[in-house]
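Lecture notes, unit on protein representations.

Consider one protein chain, 358 amino acids long.
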Amino acid sequence: MVERVKVIDGLHIDGFEELPAPGAMKDELLLAGKALESVLKGHRQVKGVLDRTDSRLIVVVGPCSIHNIEEALEYARKLKPLADELADSLVILMRVYFEKPRTSIGWEGLIYDPHLDGSYRIEQGLRLGRQLMLDIAKIGLPIAVEALDLISPQYLQDLVTWTAIGARTAESPTHRKLASGISSAIGFKNNIDGSLVVAVNAIRSASASNSFISVTEEGKVAVFRTNGNSHCHVILRGGTVPNFDHKSVVACEKELANAAMAENIMIDCSHGNSQKHHANQRHVLNDVAQQIIDGNQSIIGVMLESNLVEGKQAIPDDLDKIQYGVSVTDACIGWETTETLLREFSKSVDVMLKSRTG
């Protein structure tokens, strides 16, 4: 081997730790049995909604981010019977978000910092995340995630039913290429300022064939070639002003039609649409329900940020003082409110959904 002089390369690297190959972790924490059945069923249902062979609505609901395994499993055990109860009208997925994009600095999620202390035990975070996803799938819930890192999907994506590409990353060419090869359905959020062109262009790109560099299941660097993801859609998440209303939805329909893309639109009831006030999610959801009652055909789902307990908290220096069931990122509605809102939503749209294709 040629010895290289370290004059330029790695000037700011303090060190590195090798991770196990993705395939080795998948073999260790194997997707099989009931968990596999849940993932396959989730794929069929979500893609059926997007293909208009299933007239139900997709609901992505759960914590803004997962920071506690015990809390996440308690939430899943509460959500499963509600999902079964409302299954005639809603395909309910649990939001299992492990990676948090940051405008500047802050906690980056369970995968990167599972101990919430800046220790960045990433291998442990990947194992914890994969085991949690297996346990949630065994409960019988399909899983929704956000794709932020470009390598971690190799460790986790086989457990995913639906994937979001966030407002900060929808413009990224590498994330569009990644999305073109992901097996799950993909939602692209509109830009932070509310513009639609980035999300629509992202769908066009991810729907096409692409080539990109990643790692194989054996951990080797390789060029991946894709045939495009045909189950992409827009997520309206608001911007400088909310964009969940009828006028905004119609504008999005026109943008998609002009691009010859399927008019499939999901409404994020949080973020810009709630103007960062978690209680406003009720207002957004009620407006969406009314649009469907009035005959809208393009809205295929909604997103809600929900946790065991309402509100949010900062991560304390003394982690023993962290409040159980409360978000450490965006504020969420509590479980009781979640049950009420989803039951009301399901009841209000049920009749109109049956008149949709499917």
